[in-house]
Amino acid sequence: MKIIITGSLGNISQPLTAILVKQGHTVTVVSSNPEKKTAIEKSGAIPAIGSISDVNFLTHTFKDADAVYAMIPLSFTEPDLGDYLRRMAQNYAQALKEAGTKQIVVMSGWAADLVKAENVEHLFDDLDASITIMRPGSFYTNFYQSIDLIKGRGLLGKFLTLRYSGLWSLLTGKMGLLMGNYGGDDRVVFVSPADIADAVAQELVLLTKGKTIRYVGSEEMTCNEAAKIIGTAIGKPWLKWVLLSDKEMLQGLKMAKLPEELAGALVEMQAAMHSGKTLENFHKSQPKMGKVKLADFAQEFAAVYHKK
Question: Where in the numbering of this chain does the NAD(P)-binding domain appear (predicted)?
């Protein structure tokens, strides 16, 4: 099959490319970074350098493809997250329609149907194609974004150090926490990008009919259980996942200078996770869990953490 992969050589697209190349497919990888051209070629794929904001580029790239994996990278600089996601989704839908692609896998989020800014899945409904909407849980790799927070560095870390300094000093004598307006004993499905890549690879070659939604997860646990696994790996077994109010979370994100619309969307998404609605929807779909455990990822996380 001729398969197009967007997302450059990111956390999902890189292992996905490796799987599909190994299976003997002709794989083209889309990247906006010309410097990725050599790495893409070394992976056994064909580079297509251009932006998903360019509909003509996408249409040309998708032409004659048997299947396309479409993902929209999260932008922390766009002032309006919802508008950005809608524009990129519309670009994909237009290009896929003009190219006549019949097998499409769209990366979404497990709270996409609950968060207004993320809800762009319907923009693909009018395509005459088989479409799988992927709704993965919370990525293991999201923990990388918390390294400065765990070490007590950065604006968000300073905000939390101030917020919890007295109590935390008594408990641990040093900074060491994760945070969010979900956390504590909230149960969450975490997922490895490698397990997502396996699931996407399966959907790209299934050639099913109609539209389906597939949830993907690797392991379910409470946030504090996850924090303990990560903390133990980095020598901080006391690591806790502090549950903030929506107001506190929004204040912290604004202090970190995130655009207001993005900050609001992130708070809304995490509020849906705290409510348990995302987990409820996940269980209703009865997905098969992946193979990669958080403890396995924690060793990779520790190596990166200690280099920072």
Answer: 7-122
| CATH 3.40.50.720, the chain: domain bounds | 2-136+193-217
> pTM of whole model > 0.70?
yes
Is residue 170 packed enough to be buried (19+ CB in 10 Å), middle (13-18) or exposed (0-12)? exposed
Position of tokens 């099913």? Answer: 208
2-136+193-217 adopts what CATH topology? Rossmann fold (3.40.50)
- The angle, 0 to 180 degrees and rounded to 10, between the axes of the packed helices 55-62 and 81-99 is 40
Residue 103 to residue 210: CA distance in whole angstroms: 10
| CA dist 195 → 17, 92, 232, 278 (Å) | 13, 24, 23, 19
Weakest-pLDDT range from 157-161, 194-198, 249-253, 276-280: 157-161
Ranges for all domains in the chain classified under CATH 3.90.25.10: 140-188+220-307
In this structure, which amino acid lies at residue 171? L
Give residue-wise pLDDT tens across range 9-54.
999 999 999 999 999 999 999 999 999 999 999 999 999 999 999 9
CATH for 140-188+220-307 (3.40.50.10700, 3.90.25.10, 3.90.1310.10, 1.10.10.60) = 3.90.25.10
